[in-house]
Structures are given as structure tokens and as C-alpha cells.
Amino acid sequence: MSLDLYYAPGSAPCRVVLLVAAALDVHFNPHILNLRNGEHLTPEFLKLNPQHTVPTLVDGDFSLWESRAIGKYLVNKYGGENNDLYPNDPKARAIVDQRLDFDLGTLYPRFGNYIYPQIFGGAKADEALLKKLEEALQFLNTFLEGQKYAAGDKLTLADLSLVATVSTIDAVDISLKEYPNVEKWFELVKATAPGYQEANEAGLKAFRAMVAQLKAKTEL
Q: According to CATH, what is the number of the domain 3-78?
């Protein structure tokens, strides 16, 4: 098995793939790209991924991008026949897919819409966008009512995707105190996701450092 992963450690979607790989004990040849230097725009990388996004996985002559698609591929190929991360039962899998789509289409975009203009553009906080993010967090809090994990009583791809987003939200000091189910779930996933510290916390450290550096520039 020879897998190449092109990624940026601070990126939440990239950390999703690292978390999945840790849970499966799958190892990559790592290729860290400096996006600010345009390393994702080289002709060589565009041949692998014309959308020039990270993470990008290369498995032999097969390349794939979008973190949740990569996560599903890794489980399907390397996770064995009955892997709890992405269950075979149609209803159980549908719930995992719904949570993944919620992260992709609602929670992470609302976080990005609110925080990234502040980090990268020096914009002032937009209260309307914050309200949209808070609504998404409340949705997640409701999903978790009476649940151990995001899609039932076992750790799944949904948890690994959502925890990358929620930990990034937490990293910019957006409080989770109003969402007790989210807080409880967050602590559980941090404690039970295989390789969590190396797969997620290391990248969060890089993300926090980048945020601090960019904030310092906008305050000059």
C-alpha cells in the first residue's frame, strides 16, 4: 500500500482525513503544502487535482479530494467488511451521511463565513453571521440529545468530521457552553478517537498560531 496525502496541517478538512487514517491505522506518505506560497497551484498538483484543494489523496494512479469522500474511500478500501466507522446497515449509514452532509453544508460553512473574513481580511465580526453559526451549533446540540456519539452509540466518520470542525470553532474562542450536549460529546470524542492528539491537536496548534499571526498584522 502506497498512499500519498497532500495537505495543510492547520486545515480542518485535512485533519478529518488524518483522524480517519489514525482510526484505521492507515499510513500516508505526507506532502505538506504551503497554500500561502501557492504550492497547490503548481502544474504537477493541478494534474492530481484540477480543483487545487487540500486534502488530496493519491492511491497509485487514483486521486481523490474532498475530505469526507476520502474518509469514506479509506474505510471502504481499508476498513474491512463490517467497520463501525461507516456501517453497512442502510439506515445507520444514512444517519452518518446526514451528519457528514450537515458538517459539509451547514456547520463548517457557517463557521467559515463568520470567522475567515475576520482572520484573513481584518473584517469586523458580523453578528448576523454569528447567529447563523449559533443556530448550526444548536442543531448539532439537538442531534446529540440522548446520543452517545453523533450517529448513535459508536464512533463513526460523522464524529471524526464534526470534531475537526468543532475543535476549530473552540480554537478561536467561540464558547460551547450554551450547547451542553456538544460539550459532552466533544470531550468524549477527544478521549476516544484513536490518535486524536497527533491527528487533530497538532494541526490545531498550527491553526492557532496562524490566527494569532494574522490578527497581529491586522492590529498594526
A: 3.40.30.10
Q: Does the annotation mark 67 as catalytic?
A: no
Q: Write down the domain spans for the chain.
A: 3-78, 90-218
Secondary structure class of 219 (helix, strand, coil): coil
Q: Which numeric CATH code is attached to 90-218?
A: 1.20.1050.10
Alpha carbon separation from 34 to 115, 116, 200 (Å, rounded): 21, 18, 18
- The residue type found at 51 is Q
The active-site residue out of 2, 11, 63, 161 is 11
**Domains 3-78 and 90-218 equal at CATH topology level:** no
Residues 186-196: tens digit of each pLDDT: 999 999 999 99
Asked whether the whole model's pTM tops 0.90, one would answer yes
Q: For the segment 140-171, what is each residue's pLDDT rounded down to a tens digit? A: 999 999 999 999 999 999 999 999 999 999 99
